[in-house]
C-alpha cells in the first residue's frame, strides 16, 4: 500500500497490542546509532567509504600475515616465542595502526561520512582484535618513537632542583661577619705598651 495517510500507518504499525513492528524498528535504529554505523559509509550511504575499505583491506592483510607466519610453526613455538610474526608482520601492523589513528583524528573533525564522534563499531572491533593478537597473544611491541623527547623532558625536570639551589646560592646576599671594634679604653696589654714607650 503506497498510501502515506496517518490512518494507514496506524492500522499497519500499531494494530497489535505489542506493536512489534514499531518496537523492532526502534531497536534497529538505536543499534545503528549506538554502533555509529553511518561513520563507515559515504555521505549518501551508497556504500563503504574509501577509508573504511582501505582499513578493512589492511586488517585482512594483517590477519593473513599472522596466519601465514604461524603455519607449520605452531608445534615448534613455545607460547611466548612469536619472533617470526613480530618481525615479518611489523610493517603491516604499523600501517594498520597508523591508519586507525589517522581515521580517529579525521573522524573527530567530521571526515568522509560527515558524522563526528566515534568510528563505526566494525572498524573499532577489528582494531581491538588486531591489537589483542599483536600484544597479548604474540607479545609483540612497536618501538616507541617518543623515547628521545621523554628522556629530554625527564632530564630537564631532574636538573631543575640543581639549577634552583645553585642560583639561590649565587644570588643570595651572604652574611659576612663584621667585627665591631669596642669604643672603650683599651685593655691592660695596650696600657703596658704605652708605659713602656714613656719609660
Write up this protein.
- By secondary structure, the chain is mainly alpha-helical.
- Helices cover 61% and strands 0% of the residues.
- The protein has eight helices and no strands.
- Helix 3 (50-70) runs antiparallel to helix 5 (90-108), helix 3 runs parallel beside helix 6 (121-137) and helix 5 runs antiparallel to helix 6 (121-137).
- The longest helix is centred in the C-terminal third of the chain and has 25 residues, at 147-171.
- It is elongated.
- Pfam families: OSTMP1.
Q: State the low-pLDDT regions, or none.
A: none
Total of helices: 8
Task: Determine Rg (CA atoms, Å).
Answer: 39 Å
Intertermini distance: 147 Å
**Major sheet, described briefly?**
none
Secondary-structure-derived class: mainly alpha
- Return the average pLDDT rounded to an integer: 79
Q: State the helicity in percent bands.
A: 55-70%
Blueprint of the fold:
Elements: H1 6-13, H2 20-34, H3 50-70, H4 83-88, H5 90-108, H6 121-137, H7 147-171, H8 188-198
Helix pairs in contact: 3-5, 3-6, 5-6
Protein name: OSTM1 protein
InterPro entries: Osteopetrosis-assoc_TM_1
Organism: Lanius ludovicianus (Loggerhead shrike)
